[in-house]
């Protein structure tokens, strides 16, 4: 295998695009309207998200990277020798490089729904780490996962950075962790980033950056649905809104209609009132004990927690307990 070669596994079914249309139609005809945040991540959306991670207002990325850097000796000791590292949501792979350069890893599997971004990221890893066996699985991990046959199920360490667990409702987060518990053999590790509850000003600034990159990321959904589903959106008739819902301990992102308007999707009429919004994303914020309790209900035991000195963010090392 040459330095830039990867093993690619396509786990998306052929009916994925119709499924997307069905999901979008169901969300847009609900009250209130909503959309799954997994559809943010087409090629452009994935690039925009990497730009968000570099913004001064967006503390999670740099804070998590600093925590990982400081904690790497302990993480490597917990993971043990010759692990297979499985990353759920393969981004630009900056954080995973910290792990690859400090842990004893034989094999890497990146999983992401955006095929182009996944291939680009994993090919860079294969080129930069020629000793590493690199696998890429194009999959929707919100629908459940199966390991590719080429991946030895023993000695797995899962990696789910960026507080992406916060995009799930607490019940759905527990369900997702339960699916990971069924995927990972007993004793396997799961390294996961979790954003913490903090002052509202810091939270809201992180999702309303001065450069408008987060707004562009949100509005890019309309461009994608127009291109892939044929919905005749005029993006100037929508605005980005993000705010902290204290009662539910979450940031909410919305696309708000500036006017009353009518759109069509697969012969169905979608009506918007002026000011009505599409709820595009939640980002739940946890306390450390609260997240540990959620993980325990899904079958994971807490081994270690690291935080920054300001208590903005946490990184948890969990291990999969034996099933009942």
From TrEMBL:
Keyword Metal-binding part of the UniProt annotation: no
Keyword terms of this UniProt record: Methyltransferase, Transferase
A biological process from GO: methylation
Name of the top EC class for this enzyme: transferase
Any Pfam family matching the protein: Methyltransf_33
Keyword Transcription regulation on entry: no
GO molecular function: L-histidine N(alpha)-methyltransferase activity
UniProt EC number: 2.1.1.44
Span of domain Histidine-specific methyltransferase SAM-dependent: 20-319
Protein's name in the database: L-histidine N(Alpha)-methyltransferase
Naturally occurring in which organism (per UniProt): Marinobacter panjinensis
